[in-house]
């Protein structure tokens, strides 16, 4: 189940690390790479979002939609700016991002260290060239199967299937806990 609050905290963490502002394309790519890393590690995404191929490369579907919507949790933390940029709201600090656990912050930091210095077009080109699961949708968009991401990362089909099954079980347990609370 997609968690807008989780992905908002993920995006806010990356914005804080970047000094408070970046292009939304770069932010979307950093989030994609972090979610991809989470999938490889745990068999599930951190935010529960779905992967999609779009003309500028792979992104997270619901996260992309947040940039177009108003009156969301996202807009309580992140401002839309001119020139296709976003910024963190002035009063948001790392301590406000309580949806993130230590392992998730570690992944976000790793991705930022590796790709944070890239410009928006450089990281877009990187995801085109290095994320073999991405296929050019020719002006449209279509889903990316998580299995294809794991295979592109060099995992065997059997190992990938087992990991995805484990991830699905963990997600079901989390969803059941939320219903019971």
Topology of this protein?
Elements: H1 4-17, E1 21-23, H2 24-42, E2 51-54, E3 57-60, H3 61-66, H4 73-77, E4 78-81, E5 85-88, H5 102-115, H6 120-130, E6 142-143, H7 146-152, H8 157-180
Antiparallel strand pairs: 1-5, 2-3, 2-6, 4-5
Helix pairs in contact: 1-2, 1-5, 2-5, 2-6, 7-8
Account of the 3D structure:
With 181 residues, the protein is mainly α. It has one domain (4-180). The chain has 8 helices and 6 strands. The strands form 2 sheets. A 3-stranded antiparallel sheet has the order 1-5-4. Helix 1 packs across helix 2 (24-42) and helix 7 packs across helix 8. The longest helix has 24 residues, at 157-180. The radius of gyration is 16 Å and the shape is globular. The protein starts with a helix and ends with a helix.
What is the mean predicted local confidence, pLDDT? 93
Strand order, sheet with most strands: 1-5-4
How far the N terminus sits from the C terminus, by CA atoms, comes to 16 Å
The radius of gyration computed from the alpha-carbon positions, rounded to a whole number of angstroms, is: 16 Å
Class based on secondary structure composition and strand pairing? mainly alpha
As a percent range, the share of strand residues is 5-15%
Number of strands: 6
Order of helices and strands: HEHEEHHEEHHEHH
Shape: globular
Number of helices: 8
Largest sheet: 3 strands, antiparallel
Poorly predicted ranges? none
Oligomerization status of the protein chains: single chain
Helical amount = 55-70%
The overall number of domains is 1
